[in-house]
Write a sequence for this structure.
């Protein structure tokens, strides 16, 4: 349940805009990295103090400031105050239980969403909140921990590939959000493989353990849906914005990003239906397995009914000399073998009949 509900009791009773970290401390020391570039120049460095980021605010070049580690709220407060970010936005950045959303201000645009990744060790999907604030010439990204899906973007900036160093901060913000959305497809592919394998296992060998796995998959789908569904509103809001921060050339890329978002949502809905159907598969497999067992037991019982009848007749221990009905087989020296022969013949005839009817 930690995926769905994060403790936010520390914020109860606090004044609006109080910057209080809500979440798990994932790294020891915050890490601040800066990439500054234009079409002809490029520099990349890691700084120890947040004050070293301040000179880039008025720089004519494009600056990407990335902060890993949100538990040090002093860093969030200092950089927010210097870049003129509203204190309510800073509160949302520090609150990792924040719903994905988009907000527009005159000097900047704020976007918060969930960056998903697949934990191979725990074999489950996990999420990290990532927030973006971008203005005319800067993009500031806030992450909970080191490691992200942005390394290909850093490589394109270093190598001056594509149009990223020829474009503004709005295009950089777009490619960062696009990288997060594209990574959703990788998560969905892994989840789809798990669902497909589980369907085959359910048909072959349903068990209580697999029922628990179905419940885990169902929770993963709900978690994905909760993380991705608001993304459609975010991209739609970016498309409709009339802010001067977005150039007309970026509008086409936002439309493509919106299409990707719809595709992700459609895939999640399809996987959701598949997981719901897996419960029906499980119940059907259990029912079929039980029917097979009952069929075998019924055939065995049916075969033994006439044998029990025959054994019951000759097991009544009537004296053939005294009985009203004479039972000569009781004193016949071949009577015992005769009874066995009759029972074996009856059983064999019934087995042949069942096979002819294809009952087993």
């Amino acid at each position: 349940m930690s995926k769905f509900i994060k403790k936010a009791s520390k914020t109860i009773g606090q004044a609006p805009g109080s910057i209080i970290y809500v979440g798990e401390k994932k790294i020891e020391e915050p890490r601040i990295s800066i990439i500054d570039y234009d079409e002809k120049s490029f520099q990349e460095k890691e700084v120890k103090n947040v004050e070293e980021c301040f000179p880039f605010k008025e720089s004519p070049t494009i600056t990407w400031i990335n902060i890993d580690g949100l538990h040090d709220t002093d860093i969030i407060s200092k950089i927010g105050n210097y870049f003129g970010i509203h204190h309510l936005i800073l509160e949302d950045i520090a609150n990792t239980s924040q719903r994905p959303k988009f907000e527009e201000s005159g000097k900047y645009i704020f976007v918060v969403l969930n960056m998903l990744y697949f934990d191979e060790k725990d074999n489950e999907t996990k999420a990290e909140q990532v927030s973006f604030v971008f203005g005319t010439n800067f993009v500031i990204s806030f992450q909970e921990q080191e490691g992200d899906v942005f390394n290909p973007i850093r490589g394109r900036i270093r190598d001056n590939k594509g149009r990223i160093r020829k474009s503004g901060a709005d295009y950089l913000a777009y490619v960062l959000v696009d990288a997060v959305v594209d990574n959703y497809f990788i998560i969905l592919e892994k989840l789809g493989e798990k669902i497909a394998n589980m369907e085959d296992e359910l048909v072959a060998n349903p068990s209580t353990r697999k029922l628990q796995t179905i419940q885990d998959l169902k929770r993963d789908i709900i978690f994905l849906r909760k993380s991705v569904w608001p993304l459609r509103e975010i991209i739609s809001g970016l498309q409709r914005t009339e802010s001067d921060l977005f150039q007309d050339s970026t509008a086409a890329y936002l439309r493509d990003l919106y299409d990707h978002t719809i595709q992700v949502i459609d895939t999640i809905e399809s996987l959701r239906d598949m997981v719901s159907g897996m419960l029906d598969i499980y119940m059907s497999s259990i029912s079929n397995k039980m029917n097979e067992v009952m069929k075998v037991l019924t055939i065995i019982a049916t075969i033994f009914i006439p044998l029990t009848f025959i054994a019951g007749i000759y097991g009544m221990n009537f004296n053939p000399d005294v009985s009203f009905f004479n039972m000569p087989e009781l004193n016949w020296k071949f009577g015992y073998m005769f009874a066995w022969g009759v029972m074996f013949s009856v059983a064999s005839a019934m087995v042949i009949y069942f096979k002819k009817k294809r009952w087993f």
Notes: The chain has a mean pLDDT of 84. Residues 290-356 form a domain with the Methane Monooxygenase Hydroxylase; Chain G, domain 1 fold (CATH 1.20.58.340). Residues 290 and 338 are 38 Å apart (CA to CA).
